[in-house]
Amino acid sequence: MKTIRKVLVLLSTALVISSCTQDEIIDKNVASLEFNNQTIEVDPTGSDVVNLVFYTTFTPSSDLNIPISVVETSLDESQYSFPENITLPAGTNKGEFEMTLTDVSFFGEPFITMAFDDNGGLRTEFVLECSEPNVIVNIVFDQYSEETSWEIINDTGDVLFNNSYDAGSTSTEEGFCLPSGDYDFFIYDAYGDGICCDFGEGSYQLTFGDGTVIAEGGQFTDSESVSFTIE
């Protein structure tokens, strides 16, 4: 099972460029910003180099340098970098520039709002895209699936993923991408008799993406937990 999360690109305002070449008309609009057709893969480590594409509503007759700055962001300055000026090539309304991300945590929906020529702002929310999960939860339920729940917690106590189930569920397989770090997995049974073996042969298995087993079982009381590390 694959979990895909997309980088969301939100246009918050129209952007105005007020510094152009002598051959250009003042006050042109930067109409949109896209990330490779609205999706981009960001490495699960949170460190990557991404290509940003922007479009304008005009086409310059010569190369145009556009200042770009950060209006607001949830990231530390050490976690991102991009050029102070980006270039819109002559004869096209499409430009590109690179942003370097370093050790970005995807908990809490990190974002950055960039302004072109200090007018307005394009807000971009970075969300981890996971094409190949590096942690997989498999559960075969007993007769009382509604009693089962679980959660994955990071080393600062934040619940990153969790789930509970309706009555009548038989099994589940759920995959996730986690950045490098230390984590705890907890599985719970509300009645306190685990998921095996009085009311069915239930079991759970937590594995890395390559199939290596982190933990497995089914016979516990109200909960069972394991610590693991993503390198």
Structure in words:
This protein has two domains: 118 residues, Immunoglobulin-like (Sandwich); 96 residues, Sandwich (Immunoglobulin-like). It is an all-beta fold. The protein is 0% helix and 49% strand. The strands form four sheets. The protein has a five-stranded antiparallel β-sheet, with no helix packed on it. A five-stranded antiparallel β-sheet has the order 2-3-4-8-6, with no helix packed on it. It has a four-stranded antiparallel β-sheet with strand order 14-11-16-17, with no helix packed on it.
Q: Which structural category fits the helices and strands?
A: mainly beta
The largest pleated sheet is described as: 5 strands, antiparallel
Q: Provide the CATH top-level class of the largest domain.
A: Mainly Beta
**Number of β-strand runs:** 18
- H/E topology pattern: EEEEEEEEEEEEEEEEEE
* Overall geometric form: elongated
Give average pLDDT, whole number: 78
Biggest sheet: strand arrangement? 1-10-9-5-7
% residues in beta strands: over 45%
CATH topology of the largest domain: Immunoglobulin-like
The domain tally reads: 2
The percent of residues in helical segments reads: under 10%
Identify low-pLDDT runs: 1-28
Number of H/I helices: 0
The name of the CATH architecture of the largest domain is Sandwich
Amino-to-carboxy terminus distance: 22 Å
The radius of gyration is: 24 Å
Organism: Psychroflexus planctonicus
Protein name: DUF4382 domain-containing protein
Keywords: Signal
